[in-house]
Design a protein that fits this description.
single chain; 115 residues; alpha+beta; Glutaredoxin; five-stranded mixed sheet; 3 helices; globular
């Protein structure tokens, strides 16, 4: 995998006949991408539907890691110290929105969240 791949939930989904909803954690990452639009060109962004299994994510991280947002890290390049690793596939990933924004902001010179 040549680029980092970011999986995000599609907004405006329903659950148990309720909604529409959006994922607040995905909203944090969307905000980062709004403030740093140049990052969009550097990564692959895949939108997935809310219901599980989320097969697009499972392909990279296994059934046990279907949360979103999730950034699957490229095979080459820097790996942050707080990255997790899929036991099923061995792929490394970040699934915390602030960690995702910090990492992408750092490596692509984008805006970083103030803490």
């Amino acid at each position: 995998m040549a680029k980092h791949t970011l999986f995000m939930l599609a907004p405006w989904f329903e659950e148990d006949g309720q909604g529409p909803y959006y994922c607040p954690d995905c909203g944090v990452v969307e905000g980062f991408l709004y403030y740093s639009p140049e990052v969009r060109d550097e990564i692959e962004i895949v939108t997935v539907d809310f219901p599980r299994p989320r097969n697009e994510i499972v392909k990279f991280l296994g059934l046990e890691n279907q949360d979103s947002p999730v950034l699957v890290l490229a095979d080459e390049g820097p790996i942050p110290k707080d990255a997790r690793q899929s036991l099923s596939t061995g792929k490394k990933f970040l699934n915390d929105p602030i960690q995702i924004c910090n990492f992408l902001g750092e490596i692509y010179n984008g805006v970083k969240p103030h803490s």
